[in-house]
Write the structure tokens for this entry.
Amino acid sequence: GAAAAAFAVLTPSAAQTLTDSENAAEFSSLVKAVAEYWQPQDVIERMLMVDFIHAEWELGRLRRMVPLAFRAGQPFAVAKLEGLDHNFSESSFPSRTYSQTLADLAARGQTEDVLDAQTLLMHASAFESFDKRMAVLEVRRDGALEKVERRRSARKAISSQS
């Protein structure tokens, strides 16, 4: 009936949530697992469940993106270590001598740790933005779960008084 239709509308959709590189089966598995665990009892719990699912999915996306963003920033760090940070187009990455430049930097004592540190320093604000977004999503996800637990606890207390 109408309640089933309302629940169907509030079911997270892979088509509306995923980026092209994400797996619809993984998303559907998350939706199914959370729905089985929560067993939402009304439309409010269903909305909270949807918030939880979307926050959890985006958290996973960001956790996958951070190392990719770090690797994407490394050529800029190499350019800086080469002394070409203001003219990236002349650096080893676009000129296809990147591997040789990494070897040359290593021979001069510029270890992988130095490259990683330089990458982090150059892109600290971007990584900070990732961290802030993840913190917001964790609060949203955890808040949804807390609200459901409070509602159920209150409902249980009321029914035990009856």
Q: What stands out?
A: The chain has a mean pLDDT of 89. The radius of gyration is 24 Å. The first helix runs from residue 2 to 9. The chain has seven helices and no strands.
